[in-house]
Automatic annotation (TrEMBL):
<feature type="signal peptide">
    <location>
        <begin position="1"/>
        <end position="27"/>
    </location>
</feature>
<feature type="compositionally biased region" description="Low complexity">
    <location>
        <begin position="140"/>
        <end position="159"/>
    </location>
</feature>
<dbReference type="InterPro" id="IPR035940">
    <property type="entry name" value="CAP_sf"/>
</dbReference>
<feature type="region of interest" description="Disordered">
    <location>
        <begin position="128"/>
        <end position="165"/>
    </location>
</feature>
<feature type="domain" description="SCP">
    <location>
        <begin position="173"/>
        <end position="286"/>
    </location>
</feature>
<protein>
    <recommendedName>
        <fullName>SCP domain-containing protein</fullName>
    </recommendedName>
</protein>
<dbReference type="Pfam" id="PF00188">
    <property type="entry name" value="CAP"/>
</dbReference>
<dbReference type="InterPro" id="IPR014044">
    <property type="entry name" value="CAP_dom"/>
</dbReference>
<keyword id="KW-0732">Signal</keyword>
Amino acid sequence: MKTSLRALLCAGVLLAATLPAVGSASAASAQAEAARCRIVASKPAVNQLGQLTAVGSRTGRCFGKTRVRVRIKQSVAGPDTTLKSGSKVVRTAKLRVRANCVPGVYYTQVTGRFGQVVNSRRVNITSCTPAPAPSPSPSASPSASPSASPSATPSATPSGSTVGTAVENEVVRLTNAERAKGGCGPLTHDAKLRTAAFNHSADMSAKNYFSHDSADGRSFGDRLKQAGFSFRAAGENIAKGYQTAAQVVQGWMNSPGHKANIMNCTYTHIGVGHVAAGGPYWTQDFAKP
């Protein structure tokens, strides 16, 4: 669950860039680059395959390509060791490296142009047990029973809207019912948000993954913008395995992070995408224009 695009971009820890002692012209260029183009490092975590994973990003108004390197560093007595390293020449992108997991204290180090170095916070990995599908950020606990494939054709709601399928509109109705209990106004099912949500569920289904980040590295904020929806605040819930609208909404409501998105009175619009194949996969996109 991410509560806003800002929170998404700040998921890593952004520390002050370390700049080399060079001539004044080069130093000025480095400072200008650091001001408009950021390097971000996320804390390492254990993924659903039991691997230690770290993500680094180059984001902002970055005008030129440069090599960005992401390292998983182990914090040990003496010089810290590099467990895994990967690099790529990019303008803006997210880079992910994975390594075999061994319990210990780790952090992510990202280096970029002009000697920028950013370290994430250290995290103590006590277990390499694969992260379950239900995690506080990207998922909710799935049901294992099989499901029938619904139609992806939009169907009319009682209000006359033709945004979304019947099962997607049921998710909207149940979500609004929960919001009403907390004093929040109803969300409008928006065609652009629904497109972003449905496309993400379809992409996860087709490529067999489960994450807020698309297989091509796009964030949910990127997907909303590409669908043509401009927003001041946005959030996303996803889930896999639930068979009905009632089950998935209840699953989200039972998870504090997902419930916080549903009960955020700031949001005014929603898009819901449901794809049965391989899941079912569910995506809720929330936003305030």
